[in-house]
Design a protein that fits this description.
Layout lengths: L1 H8 L16 E7 L2 E4 L8 E5 L3 E7 L6 E3 L15 E6 L3 E7 L3 E10 L1
Parallel strand pairs: 1-4, 3-8
Antiparallel strand pairs: 1-2, 4-6, 5-7, 7-8
Amino acid sequence: MLEWLENWLVGSPLTFHATGSAVATSAAVQLGNFFFTSSRNGTSNPAVDTIAAGGTVTWTWAGGSHGVESTGSPSFTNSTVKTSGTYAFTFNTPGTYTYDCLVHGALMTGRVVVR
């Protein structure tokens, strides 16, 4: 039994290396007639993006009359209702932020995960 244990421990201590990918510092979301779509990963209704704290999400209008409305807690500042242009918000505090369209409500949704 002792020989087995000695053989099992050969090479100890073992060294492990972890690798990971950096969290993005920005995200882009398109919004149009009844959709929010992540430009990074194609998710739609909900558009889901993960960014680092201090990162910015930019929403770009692709048609129709819409607005970005924070729906949960934590929350963020809403955009105005408009038909073109962009709206950007910088997320400084980690959390999961949900949103929908100021005009169409739950027909258009999204989520920003801030790490």
